[in-house]
Specification:
Blueprint: H1 25-43, H2 70-78, E1 82-86, E2 88-89, E3 98-101, H3 111-121, E4 128-132, H4 139-148, H5 152-172, E5 179-181, E6 186-188, E7 194-195, E8 215-216, E9 219-221, H6 225-230, H7 239-244, E10 249-256, E11 259-266, E12 274-278, H8 292-305, E13 310-314, E14 322-323, E15 331-332, H9 333-357, H10 377-394, H11 397-411, H12 436-441
Parallel strand pairs: 1-13, 2-14, 3-4, 3-13, 4-12
Antiparallel strand pairs: 1-15, 5-6, 6-9, 7-8, 10-11, 11-12
Helix pairs in contact: 1-2, 1-4, 4-5
Amino acid sequence: MRTSDHDAPVSLSAAQRPVPVRPMSAAVARAMSLAIILLAAGAGCRDPEQLETAYGHQRGTAGRSVNGTSVLATLFEEADCQVSTWRRLASDLQQCDVIVWAPDDFGPPGTEVQQYFEQWLRSPTRKTLVYIGRDYNAEPHYWQAVSAGAPAAERIEIMRRLARATAQHEQDRLAMPAEATIEWFTVRRDCPRQQATHLQGPWSAGVDAATTSIHTQGQLQVPTRQELLALRPDSPQTADEVLDYETPYYETLLSAGPTVLVSRIRKPGWGHSQVIVITNGSFLLNLPLVNHAHRKLAGHLIRTCGSGSAVGFLESGPGDPMVSDQAPLPAWSRATRERVLLAAHWCVLGLVYCFCVYPIFGRPRTVADETVPDAHPAAFVQHVDALGELLQRTGDAQFAQRQVEHYHLVTRRDPVTRPRHAGPSAGLPFEPPTSPELDART
């Protein structure tokens, strides 16, 4: 077994070399906003059900949990990464360059899941699996933060909820095996509880350990060579068989004294792919990422994975995720949010337009009917003049007279046959009115 002191560096091409992450001002603002909302929600102790504690979820209401990963996903998006969410191991996961997996399970992954990721890591392109251990719960730390600024009358209730959350976590972690080994790590549950006071390793650069709040109890330790050889179904009997075993390379990226917090695993058959094993989420979940030093550690993780990558967040509850050949459509969180927000803005704009155009505001008033001739006498006079011109063009006085009488009898329904001032009687010669304007038109 090789450790970081003996590992040969793996050379990366320029296209595969991780690039620096750009400033995360927007992501920091989102993280701080989430913290303010969480603290404000619990400061009054009004409703204990308002605190979401679901573990390892990136989207939906559970993504805003104190144990969620939505803030970490936002940090990846700020580094130009395309983030998606998955709930099963399907063939379409090949399109992801990075998979972040924070399972809600205290046990190590099963054999089927390990085999799936073994094939995924052997892809021709560079792949990174980030595995975050389960032995952490942010709820007790949340109630501790709330109690600091709570009134004295509410501290008893807060301490009761703190004790309940702590007891619940201790009961849940009994599902964690006392000791179990897979190729990625060795699980040890009954380690002393401690808080990191000194940090070592490449990821400790620029991070003040005194400002961190990294807690550990159960550990994911680097397995020994004997433990790795014992994993083989047919234990090697000769030295040649031992040499044929493809030994992983383990590199410690962050540690607190003898406790390994973050380790990296590489194998010759993986090419440039890697597995990042993180002991727990005490510096990567939503509530811990309020801490500025923890966001620096998250920045180290993103740089190790490479900015601009396609990142898939894998959500799973107790037990292993389903391994399926079916290809479900991923929920592209960033694109979905943009489309939903755009549609919502257009709907609001349409409602504003309808309220401005269609309703009639103010007191009712009487409006003159434009169809009534008396409302526009000038227009009616022009109509009479035009009709007279048309009748004059016919040159038939009797026809014109009949048309006028028809108007009075049928349209006007006058009681007399011939109205007054209707013109000369039938049979008399028709003398058209004379006017300079009419002569000019003729």
